Amino acid sequence: MGLDILEIDPATPHPGVTIDGTTAQRETNGGWVTLRSKTPLSTTNHQWAIRILDQGEGADGSGLMIGLLPQLSAQMASATGGKYISELGGWCISRAGDTYGAWKCDRFPYSTDCVVEFDWDAATGTVYMVSGNKKGTGHIPGLKESDVLYPAVSMYYLNQKVAFV
């Protein structure tokens, strides 16, 4: 894809999660933590990818979310240590492929060892997703090209590990 590898913003509250540049690992069990990239998407930086290094110890498919987070108010930013992406006003897909937030998105499951690539088209409000030979799209209505968006991940279970790649 020829993209810049994003770094995880260590300034967001992240109880129970260790951050090392591009990688985050959940070291405690239970309770949501949402992380975002340091830099927002832009017209020149609209592609990113996330590798699921370990989906963690949860048996259900809802304990790991990946997606987009809008620019947050200071009050909402302080809540990232206890909420998942769509609870913060964003748009996400769970490991089981279910979608959360106010958008129309194809079902898109993923698991350990998957790399999910994203391409954001701000003009149409469409995100394109690819993982191996699987493709999907999501459409977020009502966004303007000038809206600030960040790639994000929400973690819940022990030993979950993800990396921007």
From TrEMBL:
<dbReference type="InterPro" id="IPR043136">
    <property type="entry name" value="B30.2/SPRY_sf"/>
</dbReference>
<dbReference type="InterPro" id="IPR013320">
    <property type="entry name" value="ConA-like_dom_sf"/>
</dbReference>
<feature type="domain" description="B30.2/SPRY">
    <location>
        <begin position="1"/>
        <end position="165"/>
    </location>
</feature>
<dbReference type="InterPro" id="IPR001870">
    <property type="entry name" value="B30.2/SPRY"/>
</dbReference>
<protein>
    <recommendedName>
        <fullName>B30.2/SPRY domain-containing protein</fullName>
    </recommendedName>
</protein>
